[in-house]
Amino acid sequence: MSSIGLKLVTRTLFQLGKGRQSGKVISRFYNLLIGSFLLQKMKPKNIVLAFSDWFERFIRESASGKRLLPNGKKIRLGTLLQYKMVYQLILEFEQRTGKRLRICLLNRAGLRFLNQEKRYWTHSYKRFSHFLYVEKQYLDNYCTGVFKIVKTFFNYLQAEKSFPVGEFHRKFVVPAERFTPVTLTPAQLRFLIMDQEFESGLPSIMKRAKDIFVLGCTLGLRSHDLLSLKKKNIQRTASGMCIVLHTQKTGAEIKVPLPDYAIKIIRKYTAQSRTYILPRVSGSNLNIQIKRLARLAGWTEPLPKIRHRRGVPVEIKTKDGKGYRFCDHITVHSMRRTAITTLLLMGVDETSVRRISGHAAGSREFYRYVALVQDYFDTAVKSAHQKLIAGPDISA
To answer: Which CATH topology does 186-380 take?
Structure first.
């Protein structure tokens, strides 16, 4: 309503009004109209942000150190690479749909507008999920990581930019990936450590791979921590030799005592190097060599690789369309998993194992190994019961 319209309404009301009380009522009504008029003029418009532009800024601030982790540490390079991969997915999604994602700031938004934004993000989430699952053919474990980063981006807008973006992103969920990590049994690890005949038949490059793999299955370190070990990480104490380091991922201090066979491996390679404990080898090459080592050890029994897409089990095939064998599952990650499960199977208490592995108390990842060990125990107990029933009578 214009100011001329307000004056006209007021003049008409004064002409119709009678007495002092009517004048007061009309005066209040006039002030109310003026206030409403000013509020309409001063009401800010909803601000719209381009999703991809601000996501790029989110990556930039994470890389420069302007945005830090809650503990004050800089974002790791591996995390930044994941951010960039998600950013590329967002750009590809916008290109395929022909529409740019946008974020509307909910500045004093009414219920109608909030419901409108809720519908927008529900629809966008469904379209983006369809893009990841159907068009890109990704599985639950990858999609979970993508949406986790998208949620982190929204939290950044809320916490660090104080943008009123709403809580719609909390509905971005995918089924949690469930899989059992593949590890070596204590018998298989013992074979690699003790069998001299097997070792003597290996070429030199495979002997090196075996040494690295055995040491990794003993120390329980992440692969990049293992391959980055230096001579200064060796500490000699009254009780023997141990490895001391701060992990790259969490910064936790790890101290692992070394058995005799591990000391023998370390001395073998430290004599040939000035700085590092182990030979320099890339993670991808070591992966290939470890799979070959497992194949040469005869661990070729079929073991299907099962992953999930939207909660539905999917069997993954090799590049040539064949099913997975046990040896095909063995990677550099198997070293750490084997070390943790072996210690638990040997009766080492969980607190001591966590001190070696660097897992925090209550870590879901750690209790995945605990559950795996429990499965081993359950299988052993069932086997013992079957032997008891099927075996000959034992007289007292």
So the answer is: hpI Integrase; Chain A (1.10.443)
